[in-house]
Amino acid sequence: MSMYIERTEVSTDKSPVILWDNILQDGTITVTSEATDGQAANAIDGTTYDYWMPTSVPANFTVELPTTTTASYAAIAAHNLGSTGNTLDVRAYNGVNYHLVASITPTDDKPIFIAFTGESTTRWRFRIDGGSVPKIGVVLLGDSIRFDSGILPSYTPLYMSEDVELLTSQTLNGQFVTNRVNRRGAKTQVSLNILDRSFVEGTAFQDFRNHYNQGKPFFFASNPSELEDDVSYCWRQDGGELKPTFDSDGIFYKTALSLEAYIGD
User: Are 51 and 84 in contact (CB under 8 A)?
Assistant: First the structure.
């Protein structure tokens, strides 16, 4: 499972949700330890090929922000927490200590999306305990943008939308020799149900649209409550800019997300 709802579920947890605005990039990061080739800064730059790697566990990854900031979601990708058998805590500082807001023990190395009761503070902490030393390539923390109108059919979940490029090998007379995977990823189209004009023209959607159109990455969950495996770290496909179009006499917009996703090793 990749989606963890660490609070009381609500009806809107069936709606697609996106986490893109990473508050970790706005503060000062400190960690208990980091390997020479596994610095903490690697976990917040958005790339999946490098990572933060502590030298021992338990390990803390802490951010101090310049102002009080609210967060209700966290997400992690390009990690091996399942393989190394770790428990991951998300903690918020309440003026006295870092109290627990979510705790999970992943069973695999798939992207992780965590929903928890929102907290407002200047200090946040990820704590890793148990198991052996992990690697974490991407960490996001913040508030989400949610599309309450849902997704129109037909939709292929990203975790079943593999795009596998093969390097094939055959003899001159057509005998099969071998196939080798040259590149792996995932692609899908997400047609969103009609969106209210005030939502689309509002700041939250427009800020995300700018982020999306620049090809920057984000986390996407199509239905946190019912499709817990459909969580991805993704970005837009080439030519897939977000261009809302008027529908229904100019009252609503229709639009779609053209997504490409990280698969990993």
Answer: no
Q: Is 32 helix (H, G, I), strand (E, B) or coil?
A: coil
Chain-centroid distance of CA 230 in Å reads 11
Report pTM: 0.94
Whole-angstrom Cα distance, residue 82 to residue 38? 18
Give the C-alpha distances (Å, rounded to integers) separating 27 from 62, 64, 156, 157, 203: 9, 5, 37, 34, 23
Task: Compute the distance between CA of residue 262 and CA of residue 59 in angstroms, rounded to an integer.
Answer: 26
Q: Is the pLDDT of residue 1 over 70?
A: no
User: From CA 71, how far away is CA 142, in angstroms rounded?
Assistant: 4
DSSP state of 46: S
pLDDT at 91: 98
How confident is the model over 107-121, as pLDDT tens digits? 999 999 999 999 999
The DSSP-derived string for 134-167 is --EEEEEEE--EE-TT-BPSP---GGG-EEEEEE
Pairing mode of beta strands 252-261, 245-247: antiparallel
| pLDDT tens digits, one per residue of 119-130 | 999 999 999 999
Q: What pLDDT is recorded for position 177?
A: 86
